[in-house]
What does this fold into?
Amino acid sequence: MSKYRHLFFDLDRTLWDFEANSLLTLQEMYEKRKLGKRGVSGFEDFLKFYKDYNHHLWDLYKLGEIEKEFLSVERFRGSLKHFNIEDEKLSALMAEDYITISPTKTKLFPDTIEVLQYLSAKYQLHIITNGFNEVQFVKLKNSNLAPFFSQIITSEMVGVQKPNPRVFEFALLKAVAAKVDSIMIGDDQKVDIIGAENFGIDQIFVDYHYEKMESNPTYKVHHLKDLLQLL
It folds into this structure.
């Protein structure tokens, strides 16, 4: 593994525990905006519909069929409408809440800091993320992750999302890295692993959930700490 000089990490669901932090954020928003009194049948019902609808909108965003600004508000507008609440102001306020509150949550996957401390002494570390600029940079700062990374690449900087090869090309240019000495580390088989493979760089699939394999990654681990054995 000594041939690698540059490690490119995904952020959400690889280092930063997106599901746990998003749950805390949405719970806080549900209480703050008193959605139970507005007619929502309960937080679990709201969460279930929101997650499915948000996932659908992100799929459209990745395909370039909707804009970031529309996604940001529509995920709440559509969720509220499902519960017969049509309130444009509330939708906008919730969109602002999410952007403001979610990056303040700091739950990381086990051993994240320890692993990054070890790897940063041996390699150049970078981030490649599909998240929004105003959220991802704050997440990294609040979670004490930012100091470990030389370059932080967001899809917004490029204008397309992973797995588009332009994202990886842009990241290597920013890092002054070559394909042969770079490796992508992420949890999403289609976005991180197949995307990197198609671009021509090696990959480490962080398979937290023992998924059915859709890809043939260069390496696979089940916990971040397993990276210490590989790298």
